[in-house]
Amino acid sequence: MQHDHCGADGYVNSIHSVAIGAVTQTGKPAYFGEPCPGVMAVTLTGAGVGGALPLVTVTAVADGCVTHFPGTSSAAPIAAGILALVLEVNPELTWRDVQHLVASTAKIPDPEEPGWNINAAGYHVHHRYGFGLLDAGLMVQQAALFNAVAPQRRCTQDVTLDPSRILSPGGGISVDIQSEACRGRTNEISSLEHVQVTDRRGTVRSCARPSEEEAAGALLAVTLVLYGTSGPRRAAHGRPLQSIVSMGSRHLVPHAGAHQTGRRPPLGLIQWIYRMERDRKVRAADITKPAGPQLRPTSGQESPTRPAAAGRPSRDKDQPR
Fold it and tell me: What is the pTM of this model?
């Protein structure tokens, strides 16, 4: 469905999923893609049947091959294959480790596409690209050297809306929520990983309308859930951006005082990151498999990570599923 919002998809907005979007060979978002904060990364997709390059070739359901495998039906499996290579080189990685790897290694595919931002932690993000385009070689190389992330913490905050917000049919609402992230408690979060905002049972009321009109709703309260760790704090919004995370490591930003966190970064900064990432090539000889199992802190029950398509799949009947 075009003009949809993937944040309303239960698979995409699960913290355990790696939501994957699709881009064309030009680095532009595919026309069927759905933007939302839940998109974590993108991969390339093939052209439609009878179209030009690129070709994504896969085995067919019966015999032979299909050379045109488009849609998120191809993008999500490509991501799954990349993550399989990552887990092959380091099977000790948890679902959160994998997400950190994605965030720190994904590359900007098109710096000219409006909407790129750099968050307070120094990661480049976009509602269509997530953290960027997956780089299989770089992810495998970094996975071999990856240190386990700290145990996950959870902070929950119930927020009553005064006044309540009216949600009209086909419309949206905006809610500003201030949070201390459980500061001073044992579950204090200083390094944020996920944010979830949900309504509680009984906090959404239906507003009566004439029978020929769709009913509106009134949102009375929401629950804010923060997930993260107790790692070092990053610069708050409005502070000068000192460094960015790219290709698995942190890099000092030229002319750091010229950009403040929380504001749209200048195109020149995005282009500088793009050129740096474009020129980084990982060869097979650059990848070293760990000698043995890695030690990690105990963080409770871990859930498996699964790629989720952030958009609609291809509907061609000849495409494999």
Answer: 0.81
